[in-house]
Amino acid sequence: MLAMNYRGPYRVRTVERPMPEILHPEDAIVRVTRTCICGSDLHLYHGMVPDTRVGSTFGHEFTGVVEEVGPLVTNVKVGDHVLVPFNIACGKCNFCKQGLYGNCHESNTMATAVGGIFGYSHTAGGFDGGQAEYVRVPYANVGPTVIPPDMDPDDAVLLTDVVPTGYQAAEMGGIKEGDTVVVFGAGPIGIMAARCAWFFGPSRVIIIDHVDYRLEFAKNYAKCEAYNFKSMDDPVVFLKKTTDWYGADVCIDCVGCEAEGNALQTFTGKLTLMQAGAATALQWAINSVKKGGIVSVVGVYGPPFNYVPIGNILNKGITLRANQASVKRLLPRLIDHVQSGRLNPKGLITHRVPLEEISEAYRIFSSKLDECIKTVLIPSTKS
Amino acid sequence: MNNQNQDFKNIPGWGMDIDPDNEPTYPIKNYTGDDHKRSNYEKAEQQPINIELLKSNERPRPSVVFGTSAPPSGLSGAIRRYAFKHSEDRYRHWIPLILADRINAWEGIIDDFKKGSFPDIVKERGWKSEFRYNPVNMIGKAAITLAVGGLVIKYLCKRK
Ligand SMILES: [Zn+2]
Ligand SMILES: [Zn+2]
To answer: What is the rounded CA–CA span in Å between residue A355 and residue A38?
Structure first.
C-alpha cells in the first residue's frame, strides 16, 4: 500500500509499505477515504517534535471504510464508513471513563504526559497515521464513529480534530454572554475556535494573525473581527485599547510553539532551540487577558522549558486551561451542529490533493502558498 | 478589517451552548470518583511485545497498545535507548531524542543509498510548489546558496 513517509525535516515522500495488520484483538484495519494535513503536522515536518523517527507515517485526521476487525471488536463492522478521532483511547482507564479521551493512560508507552495519537511521533505512541491507503486503528470499539448517512465525508474528516479542537478551545475559555474573546492564530483551528466561540454567547470575537489571506478567510468564515499584528506597534496594547484598557475576557492560543512576532522568542526558540519553540502567542494571550480572565491553550508546545511569563499568571490570577481535545466526548454535540447547518466544516477546505503528491501538499501548507487554509489528501483507492 | 457593527446575535447558533456552570477551575470531565483507584481498573489484554519497545520510565509496565511504526535502529537508536533511561522531566531525555532525530535523517539517506537510490530531495521538499507560488523567495534562496557556495570554493582554492 502507498503511505506517506517522513525522511527528516522538510522531507516527506510516498512509498510502498506493507499492509497494516491486526496486532491486538480490539484493532481494526481501515481503508482511508480522506485524510488531512494538520497545522500540528507541521511541527513534525519541521523537526520540532522529539522522537519523530525516519520512516514513520503521519496523519491523525482521517475517515475510512472498515476492512477488517479483530475478534473483540463489536462497535464497528466491516464495510462501515467511519471517522476516526485523532486520540487513541482505551475507554476503560479512569481518564477515559471521565470523558478525558485525550488523556488515556493505555495508549502511549513512550510518554505519560500525552496520550496516544495517530501518526504523531513516538512521543505520542509511535503509531502509524492515516496519510496512507490503510491504517491500523487500535481500540476500535472506542474511537471510530460511523459517519451519519446524510453527512458529507468532507465534513466528517474535519470532525476528527479541527472542529472538536476548535470547539474545546472555546469551551475551555468558559465564555459567558457578552464576553470579548481573542483568538491567536488564523489557521484552521483558530478559525474554527473563533466560529465555535459564538456558540457560547460572546459579544465580540477577535482573531489575530500575520497573514492577510488567512485573516480575510477567518473574517468571512467565522464572522469575527480580524487584525494583522504586523500592522500594529504592539498587539497587547492594541487589545487592551480595544477593550477599554481592560483586557479581553478570554484569550485562546491556537498557535503553539512556532509563533511569529517576537524576535527574541524566534532567536531562542526557533533558531537556536534554547527553548522549545517560540511561545509568543501564549505570552500575548497571558498579557492581553483581563485580571481574573481565562487563557485557553490548544496550540502544541514542545516538552522542554519555555520562557512563559508564569509570574503574570500568578499576579493576574489567570486561569490557564489547556488540553488535547477529547474528540469522542464532543462528537454528539458537534455532529448535531453540522447536521443542523449551524456549522460548515468543509468550508475550511481549500486544497484537494492526491496522496501521491504529499511533498507538494506539505510545502504548500508549510510555506502558506496559494492561499492554503486546509488540505485534504485523497488516496487513489478511495471508493 | 473591523466588522464590529454586525448583529452578532444573528450568527447561527449564537449562545446556544452557553453553560453558566462551566467554571473553568477544573478540567472538563465527568467526575466518577474512581481517581483514587489509580491504575487498578479493568484493562484490555496486552498487545504482544515482539519489537524493541522503548518505554517511559515513569510507568512500570507498557501501555496496553503501542505503535510499531519505526523501532530504534543504528546510532540514533542507541541514543534513543539512552534517552529513555531518563524521565520526561529531564533534558537528558528530550535533548538526546532531538539529536537522534537529526542523525536519523542522515541514516535515512545512507539507507536509500544502500538500496541503490539517491533520495529525490528536490521532490521530497516540494520545491516545485515553492517555485510555482513563491518564485521570488525561491530564486533569492538559490542566489544566496550559490553566492555562499562560490565564496567557500574561492576561499578553499586560495588556500591551496
Ligand atoms: Zn490535527
Ligand atoms: Zn483510556
So the answer is: 14
pLDDT score, position B151: 87
Residue A12: partners with Cβ closer than 8 Å, 6 or more residues away: A4, A5, A6, A45, A58, A358, A359, A362, B124
Chain A: nearest CA to B127, how far in angstroms? 7
Confidence (pTM):
0.92
- Residue-wise DSSP of A179-243: -EEEEE--SHHHHHHHHHHGGG--SEEEEEES-HHHHHHHHHHH--EEEEGGGSS-HHHHHHHHT
Instruction: Render pLDDT for A63-115 as a digit per residue (tens, 0 to 9).
Output: 999 999 999 999 999 999 999 999 999 999 999 999 999 999 999 999 998 99
Sequence-distant (≥ 6) Cβ neighbours of residue A314 within 8 angstroms:
none
Q: Which of A141, A155, A49 is nearest to A101 (CA)?
A: A141
Ligand index nearest the alpha carbon of residue A324: 1
d(C-alpha A366, C-alpha A369), whole Å = 8
What is residue A284's three-state secondary structure?
A: helix
How would you write the pLDDT of chain B (160 residues) with one tens digit per residue? 455 556 899 999 999 999 887 777 666 788 888 888 888 899 999 999 999 999 999 988 999 999 998 999 999 999 999 999 999 888 899 889 999 999 999 999 999 999 999 899 999 999 999 889 988 887 888 888 888 888 888 888 887 6
At B25 the pLDDT is 60
Look at A326 and B67 and tell me if their CB atoms are within 8 Å.
Answer: no
Residues of A in contact with B19 (CB under 8 A): 200
* Rounded-to-5 percentages of helix, strand, coil across chain B: 50, 0, 50
Cα Rg, chain B, nearest whole Å: 27
Q: Could you report the predicted ipTM of this complex, rounded to two decimals?
A: 0.89
Q: Could you read off the pLDDT of A313-337 as tens digits, one per residue?
A: 777 788 888 889 999 999 999 999 9
- Which residues on A lie below 8 Å from B68 (Cβ)? 23, 126, 128
What is the distance in A from the centroid of ligand 2 to the CA of A195?
30
